[in-house]
C-alpha cells in the first residue's frame, strides 16, 4: 500500500489480488446464454435456451425485445428474472405480421453480454396447434365437429374460414388406418358398422400459407345399435324440361320422405349448421322415391341435398349428402345444327342453343354434343 499526502487530500492506492475481484463478481464472469429457440403454437409464445455454464448457480435470465423501426429495447413481459431456461410471453400484445428482435442476458451480481436472437415475424414462425374435436355417433356414421384449438385466436384471426382438416380413423379392434383429406369443420363419415368402436385423430391446415398442424389427441366413440329404418341411398338429380327430378333408392315400401338443402359454402364456416338446412318445396311428405321441383327454386350456386325416410312411427337417419351444382345440372336448350349430305357421309354443323328472340345462349363452360342417327326405314339408332 502507498499513501501520498497532497495538502488536505489523501490518495490511497490499494493493490488487490485478482482472486479477490473474481470472488466479488460471483466467482466467474457470466457468459451469455446460447441456442435460443422461439416456439409459437397458435397464440402461445414460448422461449427456450441453454445455459452457458451449468456450474454457476443462482443465475437468472432476462429478455428485451425491439419492434421494426424502434431504436430502443423494451423489457419483455413474462421473461424477466427467470430462474429456469424457459419463459412464456403470450401476454404481450404484438402485431403478428410485424418483425421483432429479441435479446437475452444472464444475471447474478454482474451481468453477461447480450445474446441477440435472429429477427422473426410471429405469423411466419407460428405452427397450428391440435384442433378441438367433438364426436356424435349414429348407427353407421360418425359426425365430427372440429374447431381450432384457440378460441378468438389473434394469430389466425384473418384465416378462420381458410382452415381445412384431415383425419385418420380406424376400428379400435383392428388398427387399420384410413386417411380422409380436405374436410371442413363439420364432417360425417358414412358406411361404418353398428355397435363398433372407432378411434380418430384430426389435424388442421392452412394451405394458403403452407402450414400443416399437429394431430389432436385420439378420440374414440362407439356407433349405436342399428336403426330400424335405413337411410335412403343412391340419390341422383336429373333435368327434365324446366324441372329438377330427384330420385333415390329405398329398401321398404309405403314410406314417406322429405328432402332438405343447404348452401355448400356454409360447410366452410365453423359451428353447427343443423338449423340452416331448408325444406325443398314439393319434396316434403312425398310417398314415392322421387320428387320434382322447378329449376327456379335454386339460384346459381352449389348446394348439398339430403333425404330422410319415415313410416309414421320411426324415422331414419339422414342420407349421405350429395353435392348439387346448378350450372352442371342446368337445363340446356337444344342446339342449332345444319346438315349437308355427301355420297358416303354427312357433314353436321352445330351452333350454340338459342333463346327466344333467336339470340345465342352464352355458356360459362364448354359444351359437348351427342348425335343420334338412324336409317329412315329402320329404328336401329
Describe the structure.
It comes from Homo sapiens. The protein has helices at 18-24, 122-125; strands spanning 2-6, 9-13, 34-41, 44-50, 60-67, 74-75, 86-88, 100-107, 115-120, 132-137, 142-147, 164-171, 177-183, 186-189, 197-206, 211-212, 219-222, 233-240, 243-249, 256-263, 278-286, 290-294, 302-310, 322-325, 336-341, 346-351. The chain is mostly beta strands. Strands 12, 13, 15, 16 and 17 form a five-stranded antiparallel sheet that branches. Strands 6-5-8-9 form a four-stranded antiparallel sheet. A hairpin with a 2-residue loop joins strand 3 (34-41) and strand 4. The protein is elongated. The model is unreliable at 1-27 (pLDDT under 50).
**Number of strand segments:** 26
Biggest β-sheet description: 5 strands, antiparallel
Q: Helices and strands: which structural class?
A: mainly beta
Please bin the fraction of helical residues: under 10%
> What is the rounded distance between the termini?
125 Å
What percentage of the residues does DSSP assign to strands (E)?
35-45%
Mean pLDDT: 85
Number of helices: 2
Radius of gyration: 36 Å
* SSE ordering: EEHEEEEEEEHEEEEEEEEEEEEEEEEE
**Apparent shape:** elongated
- Low-confidence stretches are 1-27
Membrane topology: Single-pass type I membrane protein
Pfam families: Interfer-bind, Tissue_fac
InterPro entries: FN3_dom, FN3_sf, Ig-like_fold, Interferon/interleukin_rcp_dom, Type-II_Cytokine-TF_Rcpt
Subcellular location: Cell membrane; Late endosome; Lysosome
